[in-house]
Design goal:
Helix 1 runs antiparallel to helix 6 and helix 2 packs antiparallel against helix 6. The chain starts with 5 loop residues before the first strand and ends in a 16-residue tail after the last strand. It is globular and about 50 Å long. Strand 4, helix 4 and strand 5 form a beta-alpha-beta unit. The chain has nine helices and seven strands. It has a seven-stranded mixed beta sheet, sandwiched between helices. With 257 residues, it is of the alpha/beta class.
Length: 257
């Protein structure tokens, strides 16, 4: 049976593979439509080419790029503003167009911390996606972006305190801050071991990142396979309902309870 269609929205090439590669591969293998929108880097860049290789491994189509510059790599999009500096309304409108075109059941993006390391592009991708998912269902917002479509849920890729484990020490060892959430905030824990080969192949497709000592792909590449598999075998999400509850159901008397 096909699983719900899935759209991932992530800040950089490689985020899709690291944070949701197993879930993307799982949904694609079931016959569900899957796709990924990436906020930074431009078509024709080496990172976009690597992203294309990774998405083909995951079954998630071709790269869809908003083509803003990485906050720390201005050459990622020559002549374009950094994602975090771009007009908010412009970035939301660009993403709304993809949501309405693809009509996903579920959208997956970064959590409010920007995942473990709190990269500013990750944090901003969370904000832009949250706005775009709501706006996509409203006919008078961005009418030029296509017919309204409201995804059923927004899932935030995250890490619970109990799931940081050895990854926390590895990130701290290269000077990165670790931000995780209380375990009770996690609403879906997915064992992706059946799709781990595809997930790791997709991460490895980001060759320029696996060569960097301080990047997460680079850290993982240097680990023994057993340790790497422990780190990558589980993906965690916080699910937010997006579609409103119909009148007459749920709690008609107020917002509490």
């Amino acid at each position: 049976m096909s699983l719900p269609s899935l759209l991932g929205v992530f800040a950089h090439p490689d985020d899709e593979s690291l944070l949701a590669g197993g879930v993307l591969a799982r949904h694609a293998a079931s016959g569900a439509r899957t796709a990924v929108v990436t906020a930074t880097w431009t078509a024709g860049s080496h990172r976009a080419a690597e992203l294309g290789d990774a998405l083909r491994v995951l079954g998630a189509g071709e790269p869809r790029l908003l083509e803003y510059a990485d906050a720390r790599v201005p050459e990622s999009a020559p002549g374009r503003p950094r994602f975090i500096d771009a007009p908010l309304d412009e970035a939301v409108a660009r993403l709304v167009r993809h949501v309405r075109e693809l009509r996903p059941d579920i959208v997956v993006t970064h959590d409010a911390y920007g995942q473990l390391t709190g990269h500013p592009d990750h944090v901003h991708a969370h904000r832009v996606t949250l706005l775009a998912v709501h706006a996509a269902g409203l006919e008078h917002l961005y009418p030029e972006a296509g017919e309204p479509w409201q995804p059923g849920a927004l899932c935030l890729a995250t890490h619970p305190h109990s799931g940081v484990g050895e990854l926390g020490g590895l990130l701290a060892g290269v000077g990165k801050t670790v931000r995780s959430v209380p375990d009770e905030r996690v609403t879906a824990t997915v064992d992706v071991r059946p799709w781990l080969d595809r997930k790791w192949a997709a991460v490895s497709a980001h060759r320029s990142e696996t060569e960097r000592r301080r990047s997460l792909p680079g850290i993982l590449t240097r680990l023994p396979a057993e340790a790497r598999e422990r780190i990558l075998a589980t993906e965690w999400f916080t699910r937010l309902a997006v579609r409103p509850t119909p009148a007459g159901s749920g709690n008609p008397g107020g917002l509490t309870g």
